[in-house]
């Protein structure tokens, strides 16, 4: 079972539309789960979550707890400064890098490469 989570209702609607277009079903949740008690999760994917230093700090205790409980954690990030300089970065191993498409380059003030990281803490 897959559950997509976002507190933004527009993002959740976009997820549902994308699933419908691709013939995929998944659950969605608007619950705020960051820092919460660990659910019955095998894998957690974090997408572009390090856009703000204060927000990024919310992961300092949660990701190690998830990892210790056996959850595999993957982070996708376009090179945002709060992640580049974040203490969690020392526990991330780069798995995949790709150039950002032209439309993202125009929107992202100098960030040119997206990276998928595995958290190993």
From TrEMBL:
Belongs to the methyltransferase superfamily. ETFBKMT family. It comes from Magallana gigas (Pacific oyster). GO terms for cellular component: mitochondrial matrix. Keywords: Methyltransferase, Transferase. PANTHER family: ELECTRON TRANSFER FLAVOPROTEIN BETA SUBUNIT LYSINE METHYLTRANSFERASE. InterPro entries: Ribosomal_L11_MeTrfase_PrmA, SAM-dependent_MTases_sf. This is ETFB lysine methyltransferase. GO terms for biological process: methylation. One of its GO terms (molecular function) is protein-lysine N-methyltransferase activity.
């Amino acid at each position: 079972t897959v559950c997509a989570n976002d507190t933004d209702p527009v993002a959740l609607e976009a997820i549902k539309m994308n699933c419908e277009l691709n013939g995929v079903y998944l659950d969605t949740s608007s619950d705020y789960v960051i820092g919460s008690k660990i659910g019955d999760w095998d894998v957690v994917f974090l997408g572009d979550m390090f856009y703000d230093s204060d927000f990024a700090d919310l992961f300092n205790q949660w990701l190690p707890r998830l990892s210790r409980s056996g959850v595999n954690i993957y982070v996708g990030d376009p090179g945002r400064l709060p992640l580049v300089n974040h203490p969690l970065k020392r526990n991330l191993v780069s798995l995949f890098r790709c150039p950002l498409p032209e439309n993202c380059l125009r929107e992202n003030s100098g960030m040119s490469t997206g990276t998928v990281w595995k958290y190993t803490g």
